[in-house]
Amino acid sequence: MTSPKPRVVLGVSAGIAAYKACELLRRLTESGHDVTVVPTEDALRFVGEPTWAALSGRPVSSSVWDGVAGVPHVRLGQSADLVFVAPATADLLARAAQGLADDLLTTTLLTARCPVVFAPAMHTEMWEHPATRANVATLRARGAVVIEPASGRLTGTDTGPGRLPDPAELFEVARHVLARGAAGRDLAGRHVVVSAGGTREAIDPVRFIGNRSSGLQGYALARTAVARGARVTLVAANVALPDPAGADVVATGSAEEMRKAVLSAAGDADAVVMAAAVADFRPAGYHGSKIKKADGAEPEPIRLVKNPDILAELGETRRPGQVIVGFAAETDDVLANGRAKLARKRSDLLVVNQVGEEMTFGRPDNAAVVLGADGSATEVPRGPKEALAEIVWDLVAARLEPLSPD
């Protein structure tokens, strides 16, 4: 017997970004979800009812008075596995925070006992207004996942935070929240920092020393943390991947740039996960112009010096209660080297995996052993990098001190 399709209510409020929700709807339906679109009345000014009905294959209504015999204002929320509002305008966030029930979408939000996700989209001034920030805090305190908007081009010529994230990344949030169900918000109220990618150390304007890291594992960690309710700062080095929805992405290049960004973000972080491949060495000097190849002559040796050890510095300067997680890419004596590194770096956890040609870097899957400072060892069989990310956060969450009541 096949399991029923996950039931998703896609709420759409009245913002210009409503057109992006069409792509989110398509991804949900094509991946086997049963989606009912519930727009606000004004949202239909941006995208009409025929579009939503055609893409979802279901009737669309914004009124509590349609199909009254079926009590839709109660049944939709009661039967949903996920309610996902995209875009969520400042007005919709305010009405949801106040518990208003003046249309089908807000009544659905009040009756929902499943996970609820809001994807805000509005102008920067509206997003940063104290009223909106208070409404977001209220919704998060009640158990909703309110993801951070992206920064970028807004309506007209304005730019800044407030842009609806890419629909493909919103779909990933929906998928992760559905997979975890009611247990998904164990990182709510937490700030986590994740590093990703590989640093590059410049030799001259066109050459560098680097590594094979793609950033896929770090980005999987960021996505899963967002879905579990965390505020996520993602420090990324040389990654050609779309920004995970809800994460604050800080772009860096070299090890020193990453060090500054990570230490700055870690000041108030509950956990720091160093998934990036940080170059151990950099050229002692930088050539301001391209090094020329001389006919018949061997190139001058490039002298290397050590880069800062970011993980060790985090272990030395951590604030009380902060959980530090490192990654160790090893080619031989994997566990022995991992145990030594765990102690040397003063980390709480160390994710150890074997690397090499066609292994780990750039691949969608990973296998690892997560070593704990308490002597534990959690083996993670080869599987999607998201699966490893979930286990890492499980282990982190178990080590976090309880949040103090405010």
TrEMBL record:
One of its GO terms (biological process) is pantothenate catabolic process. One of its GO terms (cellular component) is phosphopantothenoylcysteine decarboxylase complex. It catalyses: (R)-4'-phosphopantothenate + L-cysteine + CTP = N-[(R)-4-phosphopantothenoyl]-L-cysteine + CMP + diphosphate + H(+); N-[(R)-4-phosphopantothenoyl]-L-cysteine + H(+) = (R)-4'-phosphopantetheine + CO2. Binds 1 FMN per subunit. Its cofactor is FMN; Mg(2+). Residues 187-398 form the DNA/pantothenate metabolism flavoprotein C-terminal domain. Residues 192-406 are annotated as: Phosphopantothenate--cysteine ligase. Its EC number is 4.1.1.36, 6.3.2.5. GO terms for molecular function: FMN binding; metal ion binding; phosphopantothenate--cysteine ligase activity; phosphopantothenoylcysteine decarboxylase activity. Pathway: Cofactor biosynthesis; coenzyme A biosynthesis; CoA from (R)-pantothenate: step 3/5; Cofactor biosynthesis; coenzyme A biosynthesis; CoA from (R)-pantothenate: step 2/5. Keywords: Decarboxylase, Flavoprotein, FMN, Ligase, Lyase, Magnesium, Metal-binding, Multifunctional enzyme. CTP binds at D280, K290, P308, D309, I310, L311, F327, K341, K345. Residues 7-168 form the Flavoprotein domain. In the N-terminal section; belongs to the HFCD (homo-oligomeric flavin containing Cys decarboxylase) superfamily. In the C-terminal section; belongs to the PPC synthetase family. Catalyzes two steps in the biosynthesis of coenzyme A. In the first step cysteine is conjugated to 4'-phosphopantothenate to form 4-phosphopantothenoylcysteine, in the latter compound is decarboxylated to form 4'-phosphopantotheine. HAMAP family: CoaBC. This is Coenzyme A biosynthesis bifunctional protein CoaBC. The gene is coaBC.
